[in-house]
Amino acid sequence: MYDALKRGVGAGAVAGVAYGLFVALVATPAIAFAETFEAGHGHESGIDLVAAAPSVVGGGLFGLLLGAAFGVVYYLFEPALPGATDTRNYLLAAAGFVTVSGAPWLALPPQAPGAEYALGSDARLVIYAGMMALGALACALSALAWRRTEGTATVARAAAALLPFGLVVAAAFFAPTASSSGPIPDGLATAYRGLVVVGQVLLWMTLATAHTWLLDRTAASELTIPRETPH
Amino acid sequence: METADTVHDRIERAGTELTPTRAALAIGLAAALGFTLMFLQDPMAHDAMHNFRHAAGVTCH
After folding, report:
1. What residues of B are in contact with residue A196 (Cβ under 8 Å)?
2. How far is it between the farthest Cα atoms of chain A?
């Protein structure tokens, strides 16, 4: 259990550094540019890395937190995941993405700064948390459906595993719409959304890759005889 | 890592390895960090985390 947590934190450190760099080098300039469209925003579009530092650290901590959770959840639910070690890691990372970001984004798409929200922050917080829970539930049902349909055709199994995600889509459809307007051109808003999605996908992929690597390494060291013998 | 056991075995094993205090501490710490990063509305935390929250697509601010 502690080994699993350690592996998770290790993978989270790798993903956190990568994501911190993404926040510093990609997201910060994009946000600074988007802010130039904000009405009454006096400051220049120059990138202030000192002011952005807490956000970069926040990105790193976010990676660490996700990594620690990933390690523990992987340890507990590994037997329920299908496939070999690497498949299991990437599937769990996909489930993590759906839970933390994907499902909530269906109801509340990521917004560039300056967007005005139709709903208050309390209402949005409740919707975000609710969609996270629903995303996790859909992932669990999907894994269960894949297991229960063992022995049937792969196409049928895949369809059964995809079915629970309809729940998330339906819920997002019926959730109060949080359409927002802002001074940012539509093209930039779309590009910004794509940038956020890519950032999170890369974060989870880095996490899964680093975790797989650490699993291989620790498993190998348990099996092989130490190369260096003490003098 | 052996894969023959079930989720139930894993949870049971975690239960014998972890004391409830430690488990509560770890969950509490993770929840506090997650809440601070993603949802805390306090103006200072909000301003400091502004770019990160926009970058992570957390719209709760």
Report:
1. 54-57
2. 71
